[in-house]
Design goal:
about 160 residues, Peptidase_A2_cat, single chain, mainly alpha, repeat, elongated
Length: about 160
């Protein structure tokens, strides 16, 4: 990574908005991937940096950009439980039904990790609960495996 890419990743991680704005004013490409395949948007979202995520999206970051495993920013916030950032990503057009390398979706991540408020949010916005992962499991099957009774109720 070059010096600007290192600065972007660090600024995205800690929500350093002035640095990100300065880099955006220089027409910086916010869609590069670091050595793990993470984009600045994925980093910002995973670290609960709402303002940085919004700024990156508005500056042209690919909302559906994925890491080397196919995981998107939306999948990351569903894992972490950041409902406000999930709403931002949905409002900005994130693909609710994108599946990563093993077929998992944002809805499946939310069910797996007990993020029932995000399950409701995703369902209310049209997430497909019939998708199958690489093992042939639906989000309902995953909720049952996790004994996530709240998700089971939402998914019926």
């Amino acid at each position: 990574m070059d010096i600007n890419q290192t600065a972007i990743i660090h600024a995205a991680r800690i929500g350093e908005i002035p640095v990100l704005k300065e880099l955006a004013s220089q027409n910086t490409d916010f869609n590069f991937k670091d050595e793990k395949g993470f984009t600045p948007l994925i980093i910002a979202c995973y670290n609960n940096q709402y303002e940085a995520a919004e700024m990156l999206i508005d500056a042209g970051a690919d909302i559906n950009g994925a890491d080397f495993g196919g995981n998107t920013a939306l999948m990351g916030v569903c894992f972490k439980g950041y409902t406000n950032i999930a709403q931002l990503l949905i409002d900005k057009g994130a693909d609710l039904n994108r599946q990563h390398g093993n077929g998992g979706s944002a809805l499946m991540f939310a069910a797996m990790f007990g993020r029932n408020d995000i399950i409701k949010l995703l369902l209310d916005n049209g997430a497909d609960k019939t998708l199958l992962d690489s093992k042939g499991l639906t989000v309902y099957d995953i909720a049952v495996q996790q004994n996530n009774e709240g998700a089971i109720e939402l998914l019926k």
